[in-house]
Amino acid sequence: MRVVAGRYKGHNLKTLKGEATRPTTMRVKESLFSSLTSMLGSFEGLNVLDAFAGSGALGIEALSRGADHVVFFEKSRQAAQVVSENLKKVNAPQDSYVIELGDALRSAGRFHAMSFDLVFLDPPYAIEPACVLEYVESLASASALNADALICYELAKKNKPACLEQAHRLKWAAVSVKDFGDTSYVLLRKGD
Fold first, then answer.
1. b or e along 66-78 (b: 16 or more beta carbons within 10 Å of the residue's beta carbon)?
2. Which one, 55, 111, 156, 192, has the greatest CB density within 10 A?
């Protein structure tokens, strides 16, 4: 796993061994960031939440491309240590990130003083889309999302219909949906 573009381009990132985490493949990451660049124009000045950080690859890619600040949220102490090592490896300024240890799905209340422009959700595939999207709603209810915040949700392709149905029910618009083998990612924005 390496950083694709920006100031940390080419740095190889450590990933956690075993089945505890499932790193986003390079192909998916390249496509995702291409889509994000098309929609956002730039990552400059963005506040980002990497809610199921794993190795931190998605949040680090955002920092590399100019994001101001990233909150990395990770349940596994080992994975959080890998995130820390990767941030040190790319020499990210310490004031550009925070690593939080805990269950992201129960964290929305912790962000009352923050407002995110971009949220990465790459949870274990066993977590139902309804739970993940309820978490997104709880972030919105806690005023932790800017009005035009973009949500990037990577999930098992078989769960995509349930995701899109729940998103529609909660009035989140799918602005982009892409499939890669058994994996899909959905980009969501709050609808009217």
1. ebebbbbbbbbee
2. 55
* DSSP helix/strand/coil, 84: helix
How many C-beta atoms surround the C-beta of residue 168 within 10 A?
12
pTM score, whole prediction: 0.93
Query: CB-based contacts of 148: which residues, under 8 Å, 6+ apart?
Result: 117, 189, 190
Show the CA angle centred on residue 140, arms to residues 98 and 82, nearest 5°: 25
For 96-126, write each residue's pLDDT tens digit. Answer: 999 999 988 888 777 767 899 999 999 988 8
Nearest to 139 by CA among 73, 89, 45: 73
Residue holding tokens 């139902």?
Answer: 128
CB neighbourhood size of 33 (10 A):
21
61 Cβ contact partners less than 8 Å away, ≥ 6 residues apart: 3, 4, 5, 6, 29, 33
User: What domains does the chain contain, in order, with CATH numbers?
Assistant: 26-190 (3.40.50.150)
